[in-house]
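Q: Please design a sequence for this.
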């Protein structure tokens, strides 16, 4: 929608009402995909499934921390918000 309505739509998509449903569907889809992969791997090896699950959770934590660090750095070094 941003490409159709331009900068005026930015406020709408930063609210939960604007993009919350899409984010919820994305998170639910990712969780279901993770469960299906872990279940599939579990049939071959419980240890491998546990390692895959642990690695997936570790990567989620890593990406979240990196995302937070990048946003903090941009806010501190770019006062004009660009």
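A: Design:
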């Amino acid at each position: 929608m941003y490409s159709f309505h331009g900068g005026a739509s930015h406020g709408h998509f930063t609210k939960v009402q604007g993009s919350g449903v899409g984010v919820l569907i994305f998170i639910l889809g990712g969780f279901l995909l993770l469960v299906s992969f872990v279940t599939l791997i579990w049939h071959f090896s419980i240890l491998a499934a546990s390692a895959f699950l642990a690695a997936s959770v570790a990567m989620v934590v890593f990406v979240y921390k990196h995302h937070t660090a990048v946003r903090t750095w941009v806010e501190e070094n770019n006062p004009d918000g660009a």
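Q: Thanks. Anything notable?
A: The two ends are 21 Å apart (CA to CA). DSSP finds four helices and no strands in the chain.
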